[in-house]
Amino acid sequence: MYPPEVVAPFREDLTSKGFKELTSPEEVDNHLNSSEGTKLVVINSVCGCAARNARPAAKMAVDNEVKPDEILTVFAGFHNEATNQVRKYCLPYPPSSPSMALFKDGKLVHFIERHHIEGRPAEMIADNLKEAFKEHC
User: Nearest CA to 58 among 119, 116, 123?
Assistant: First the structure.
């Protein structure tokens, strides 16, 4: 598990833009068990592709007229139990971080795995999310 002082700026990068951080399995269940509305969950991490690609893409995507009802985040390697709980909702996709999951009415409708984040510009990832928002939100 990463020390709090190491992950604080990476967590704040999303929470300062309105992402609600989920820190326990119970919080995850409370948000994702809901059968109404749309929710984006960003599984955040300390890696370079989270800093360079995933977090900037998520922020760009939600700075949009069409966006999910809720924007949420968990932090892999820090809030492990919450992260593992989100990953249960993302099956059959294997665990990966960073990653992004869009839920509609309690069902996973769009998922971006780490291998779709690595090496891709944040703008391309944001466009992918915006298209998913247009379709599902």
Answer: 123
CB 122 within 8 A of CB 63: no
Q: Which of 49, 54, 61, 72 is catalytic?
A: 49
49 noted as active-site residue: yes
Residue 34 tokens read as 């809901």
Catalytic residue among 28, 40, 47, 101: 47
How much is the pTM?
0.95
Q: What domains, with CATH codes, occur in the chain?
A: 4-136 (3.40.30.10)
Residue 90 annotated to the active site = no
Render pLDDT for 36-53 as a digit per residue (tens, 0 to 9).
899 999 999 998 899 999
